[in-house]
Amino acid sequence: MPAGVAPDKLAEIQAEFSSEWLKIAGLARQGMLQPPSDRRFSAPAWAQDPASLMAAHTYLLAARAMHQMVDAAQLDEAARNRLRFSVMQWVEAAAPSNFVATNPEVLRTILDTQGRSLSEGMRNLFRDMQQGRLTQTDESRFELGRNVAITPGAVVYQNPLMQVIQYAPLTAKVHKTPLLIVPPCINKFYILDLQPDNSFVRHAVEQGFTVFLISWRNPQPTDADGVDAATWGDYLQQGVLKAIEVASDISRQPRINALGFCVGGTLLAAALALAHAQGRQPVGALTLLTTLLDFKETGVLDVFVDEFHASAREYQLGRGGLMSARELGTTFSFLRPSELVWNYVVSNYMKGEAPPAFDLLFWNADGTNLPGPFFAWYFRNTYLENNLKEPGRVRVDGHGLDLGSLTMPAYIYGSREDHIVPWPSAYASTGLVRGPVRFVLGASGHIAGVINPPAKRRRSYWAHDADAAARAPMPADPDGWLEAAARHEGSWWPDWVQWLAGHSGPLVRARSKLGDARHPPLEDAPGSYVKVRAT
After folding, report:
1. DSSP state for residue 464 in the 8-state scheme
2. Could you tell me if residue 110 is inside a domain?
3. Which of these three, 41, 75, 102, is where a domain ends?
4. Which of the residues are catalytic?
5. Looking at the whole model, is its pTM more than 0.85?
6. N or C: fewer beta carbons within 10 Å in the chain?
7. Whole-angstrom distance, CA of residue 202 vs CA of residue 422
8. What's the Cα-to-Cα distance from 104 to each of 48, 73, 101, 124, 340, rounded to whole Å?
9. What domain range includes position 497?
């Protein structure tokens, strides 16, 4: 059947559109049309201008009809998702709020400022054109090591791929078993160490854990040491497993605990499967935060995944070169264009405003390049072919990887509104690892769900009673798990701390010196690798 919308469904959509249009027009004639709930049209200037108010309602009605037609299109699901993404981009770009002539708030601001807002907006635009990206926050207000990433510690090891940071104890006693944190290499690590009141790293240290963390290198086009040719296997061997070795040596513990966030979780699980294939079991307890191990359902990112894109990246980057932070950042921004693109176009360029200081958006703008071979391998073997979850299908240095060999206790976390790692896909990891699992679902999205310090008393999380969860097998259906889970107010961090403490051994006297004779401190945290900006 050719692509299109069935005649009866099309007629239904058209009838609904006509009916709603007549209602809007009728209210407008009577002067009773109210501002829509959409935040783009919430300023008083929209309500005070009948023509603009009518345009806003008409736009939203047309946008809804277009999305309905996409949903009704007679296409396979992959094609429908691509069409949905394309229509979403067009619809978001076409909003009347995005144009000077059709945004009454912008016109009012130009009059009130006698044109200064427009000249300031042009200045902002030229600045962003020079730096090659859109400014989302006042970046001058933040400095690494001064007011972000300031948890005390030292770099105790480095190689061409990463630095290992050991954080200084903040308690007199610490748990005997240390924790290694593996952040994603697609971003800088300090999303986990923004400022003291929202730092996951500092919170873990304050709870009596000795924390080590990987700070991945941000490779540059001018680097001459071949890091642009680093492979997936290099990141496992010289990245994750080497960091585990360093943490184990310094702490003098044969086994440590480890936490992986997002792509860092994927790397961590794969590295542990490699270690097990080599006859080693270096980690006693595993935490995975918003991590994909089964890439069957990848949410909106699926629109970019096909053989053409995989082959193109392999041709372009498979033997070396860099996947640029700019391209990666643009891709992720257009996953949510209304929030991460067009609202800044309006405020920065059309209204001439300076964006406020926000630590999370400062981090978001501080992207990292990726070695081409690493990215090309990762794209094909995870997103395209979903090989990692199949025992033995992925081989590294002659060893087949089997996630089922991971039999240690595991704490797996997903965020309910996550558009990068859909929570049912995070939940799917519970069926791949073989040890006792605790799954926790937090409110909000990929970042805000994870960075949720208890003191703020925000959001909530869902979990099963710990004792009952330990006795019962994990349901195969994530919705079934959620239906039986209890909702808890506030942060999930205390739940994780309690779980990790039970797998971290007794409390012992904290050591005042960082590193050891083989791994002396090289420089203060946050180290030099994280300070390299992408070019």
Report:
1. -
2. no
3. 102
4. 262
5. yes
6. N
7. 27
8. 9, 35, 8, 21, 22
9. 153-324+369-531
